[in-house]
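Its record is set out here:
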Amino acid sequence: MTGTMKAAVLVKPGQFDVRDVPRPEPGRDEVLVRISRVGICGTDIHIFNGHYAAENLPMIPGHEFTGTIAELGEGVSGLTVGAPVVVDMNIGCGSCYWCRRNEILNCPEMQQMGITMDGAFAEYISVPARLVIPTPQNVPVEVLALTEPLACVVRCARKANISFGQSVVVLGAGPIGNLHVQLLRTIGAAPIIVADLSEDRVQLALEAGADVGVTNPSALEETVLRHTEGRGADVVIESVGLPALYQQAAQLIRKGGHIAAFGLTGAGETLPVDILQTILQENSIKGSVAGMGQDMHDALTLLTHGRIKTDRFTGASYALDHIQQAFDSITDRPGDLKTQIVLTH
């Protein structure tokens, strides 16, 4: 298969150019995927605004995608042309210390589709066959496109060792914050306290399974103490990416509590830490931002079996030709927890 395809190239921060570009051809051990749906991620918005990966522009962003196999490269077996799939966006060497531990982001050769290399806001993408995950035929494409963001949330819960009966505060009730709440509910965490300045998004989080919602920052600490018998939360998930919220998270955890560092800050941002208190109280902090490997499979299983409410994530969609409008208007649509770009139905 040769020729051209339509793609949305981010030529500079804030400006997409939908144009014809060379259609990729799958190399050895690669698969060509015809893309159906692509979700707009918070990371995509950071890239669009020039706050992240600007050195890689011009580039085709997009990494939350699903599609069908269009062509198999040489040496590929076990996959079938026409099969619906999702794809793990994180490409490691596959053999180093970190890859063997499924810590792909630390691989010296790590690349990420749509961030460090061309991604999925296009009609086709060629990907390593080992990262392709076949999906059930009966799951809608708009739901399958949520696999990657849900995988990020799965990994965060796994890294934080969250279990039933644990109190968890989620700072941020945006799309990922809402998914955090839903997964925490599935795990059995309690109580789940969500905080955000947006009353609309806090209400959506309460409908998704949060026990307590807070929109007044000055009332958050008292609310957390009141709902945790004065101890503080077992876990606080920072899902926004603001240094001030990370500092607040440190005040909200109990002695021996854990901060799950999830929200991306600017490069070089630091968090003041009371070292003696951290030692004596046995507090901890651990970063996690991208789902990979088994996280993708687990997220797909949760979506396939209806463990996640997806209605609020699948209502807003734009054709590829209107991607500029989709990005320009996204902050004006807080009720749309996810916006998807439609390539094929």
